[in-house]
């Protein structure tokens, strides 16, 4: 097999602000694995919060090259698990780099077998939950404009974590009185701040709150969980499957992102671990193209909630594949991930 990659720049329609950063775009890495005259594709979507950058991704891919190219023929479906263990043994961490390789291996196998991934996993596309659409932190007029432009989305995820949170919610609720609202603080609050703000969020009809506290504040998370009028979903606290059992009693659910955990195989382990622990499952994303979103989209029929709008936030998407029609996640019948370059 042959491993190649190239960097791509994704530009956002609007600058995207959360409680800890603002971005106007993202540099991602398009990964390709070639075997038997076919190419499997994946995308690395690194986050500085998890210690990754486009440069660390490239360094990791260089380290992984010998593992991938040491396999002369396309690895079979029964061998992907072993190969991925070999990658982690060669270099641990680097979740988005491993996620891109894992996606490319699964894409390649789907193309060899002529079946989409959702079918190989025994899933039904129509069972996928509706996806939310994210409204980043911004000036009041821009927030109102974003909400108006998102009228086709019945579920809005509102980024909070500033002293203007109530004003933002008022604007969103005024512009979208019937929308389901979800709130993401991206670890911006203390336990005391969260417990003071949660009743206000409940008054605005918020469905649940994502990551109110820093992931290291376990005692604070327990206090918030026990005192919250709203369900708590943890994202930054939930990286891989081994994190999940310790979150029982701290949250009602977890948010799984493939760029954090290392790819679809670990995401599947996370889904089953969460279910065994009695936790709800959300599938989320970074700022990603349709290629980056695709593996999570194929897994989405297993989730309770979806936040797979990363490509919908872009000014232009270099890829075509699984996508949102309004809030509905659309999976096609093309083999593998079902992703191609935009015409």
- The ordered H/E elements are EEEHHHHEHEHEHEHEEHHEHEEEEE
End-to-end separation:
27 Å
**How would the global form be characterised?**
globular
Biggest beta sheet summary: 8 strands, parallel
Helix coverage percent of residues?
25-40%
The CATH homology group name of the largest domain: Enolase-like C-terminal domain
Question: Any idea what the CATH architecture of the largest domain is?
Answer: Alpha-Beta Barrel
Q: What amount of the residues lies in strands?
A: 15-25%
Per CATH, the class of the largest domain reads: Alpha Beta
CATH topology of the largest domain: TIM Barrel
Rg from C-alpha positions? 19 Å
Number of H- or I-type helical stretches: 11
The strands making up the biggest β-sheet line up spatially as 4-5-6-7-8-9-10-11
**How many domains in all?**
2
**What are the low-pLDDT stretches, counting only 5+ consecutive residues below 50?**
none
**Average predicted confidence as pLDDT:** 95
What is the structural class?
A: alpha/beta
Number of strands: 15
């Amino acid at each position: 097999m042959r491993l190649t990659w190239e960097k791509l720049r994704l530009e956002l329609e609007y600058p995207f602000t959360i409680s800890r950063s603002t971005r106007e775009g993202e540099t991602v890495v398009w990964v390709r694995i070639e075997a038997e005259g076919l190419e499997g594709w994946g995308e690395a979507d690194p986050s500085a919060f998890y210690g990754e950058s486009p440069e660390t991704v490239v360094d990791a891919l260089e380290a992984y090259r010998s593992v991938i190219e040491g396999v002369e023929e396309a690895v079979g479906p029964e061998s992907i698990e072993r190969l991925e263990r070999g990658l982690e043994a060669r270099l641990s961490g680097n979740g988005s780099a491993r996620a891109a390789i894992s996606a490319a291996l699964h894409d390649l196998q789907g193309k060899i077998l002529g079946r989409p991934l959702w079918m190989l996993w025994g899933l039904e596309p129509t069972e996928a939950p509706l996806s939310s659409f994210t409204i980043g932190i911004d000036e009041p007029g821009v927030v109102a404009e974003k909400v108006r432009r998102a009228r086709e989305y019945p579920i809005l995820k509102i980024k909070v974590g500033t002293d203007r949170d109530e004003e933002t919610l008022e604007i969103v609720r005024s512009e979208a009185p019937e929308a389901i609202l979800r709130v993401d603080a991206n670890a911006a609050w203390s336990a005391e701040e969260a417990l003071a703000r949660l009743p206000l969020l409940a008054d605005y009809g918020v469905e649940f709150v994502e990551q109110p506290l820093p992931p290291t504040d376990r005692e604070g998370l327990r206090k918030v969980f026990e005192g919250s009028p709203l369900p708590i979903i943890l994202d930054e606290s939930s990286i891989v499957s081994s994190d999940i059992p310790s979150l029982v009693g701290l949250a009602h659910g977890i948010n799984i992102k493939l760029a954090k955990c290392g790819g679809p195989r670990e995401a599947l382990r996370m889904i089953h671990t969460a279910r065994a622990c009695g936790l709800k499952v959300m599938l989320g994303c970074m700022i990603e193209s349709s290629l980056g979103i695709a593996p999570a989209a194929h897994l989405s029929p297993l989730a309770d909630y979806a936040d797979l709008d990363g490509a919908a936030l872009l000014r232009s998407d270099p890829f075509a594949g699984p996508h949102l029609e309004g809030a509905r996640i659309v999976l096609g019948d093309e083999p593998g991930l079902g992703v191609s370059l935009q015409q």
